[in-house]
Amino acid sequence: MRKGANGLNGTRILVVSGGVFSILLIALITVAFVPALRFAALRIVLPLREKLTVHALRGGAYWVSGGISNTGFIIGDDGVIAIDSQMFIKTARKQLTEIAKLTPKPVNVMILTHDDPDHINGLPAYPHCMQIIAHENAVRRMRQFINDPYLNGFPADPRMKDYLPSSTVQGTVTRVLNGVTVRLIHAGPAHTDNDIVVYLPVQRIVYAGDLLTPAASLYPGVHLNKNGSSLGFFAFMRTILALDADLYVSGHGDLLSRAELVKRLAAAEDRRAQIKQLFDQGRTLKEAKATLHDEPLTGNAARFPTFVETTYLELNAERSSNHGKPAAR
């Protein structure tokens, strides 16, 4: 590589020799197509873009924006309860720094709202001795991710094997953690088959994980590969709306009000009814997407299928399992 030459108007032009250019090109191609190197590069680059902001709610509860996904924490009597761990270890360490600005108490409890990598991969930044709570399906799948790191889309640090949840949830349980009353709610498959909503009855706050993703779309994201369900989402949303709460922390996007949840549920139910009508008429997915003006998801969710696409797959699966009989409404 030569240092450069003078161009028009004194502009410096960087001249790259053929040999150096070939080396750079090979390096870029290697990073792009070798998964381990590509993910290693992303672990370095993406956290540099993340600027965390801590938002105070009430009663010692906070939510954190600016990462790949939102997180939360509650400062209790004996320690801090964290809700989701961030995508990257570097970002999780930034969050721990922010928590330390508010309290000297340790993070001794972690609640995982589900098992997507942007909610669990930051775990190795946290104290190894903390209690980790998750749905039993999340624990089962996290064990699979340790054996097959690429199974969850974005491989986790090898140290994740030391951060398997120590406490599991199946339905709905109420626990007192660090002096804070916390209700952990699983109302069936929705975004995944291991969603947990964290409800603080005293503070009237709900941490909903990816059941709420306003940054991506008005409609829900359903991971069919993790046994998610659009009908299950509707049932879960009704469970959330039955709670005495008025602040709802989303997994991606802004804080939401109860009125906004009602709007999102109604929109999703209407959308599914429209999709099913087109499906029953024998329309193809391409035709349904055109009819409904289906737009790609936005932001970090752009690589995922839309609600129209996942619902079509659901309806096809239901028809196949019912041997041609009508799918559920």
Structure description:
With 329 residues, the protein is of the alpha/beta class. It has two domains: 2-33; 37-321, Ribonuclease Z/Hydroxyacylglutathione hydrolase-like (Metallo-beta-lactamase, Chain A, 4-Layer Sandwich). Helix content is 35%, strand content 19%. It has helices spanning 18-33, 35-45, 89-102, 117-120, 136-147, 230-241, 258-280, 285-291, 307-321, and strands at 2-6, 12-15, 53-56, 61-65, 71-75, 80-83, 107-111, 131-135, 167-169, 172-177, 180-185, 197-200, 205-207, 247-249. The strands form three sheets. Strands 3-4-5-6-7-8-9 form a seven-stranded mixed sheet. Strands 10-11-12-13-14 form a five-stranded mixed sheet, with no helix packed on it. Strand 5 and strand 6 form a beta hairpin. It is globular and about 60 Å long. The termini are far apart. Residues 1-17 and 24-32 have low confidence and may be disordered.
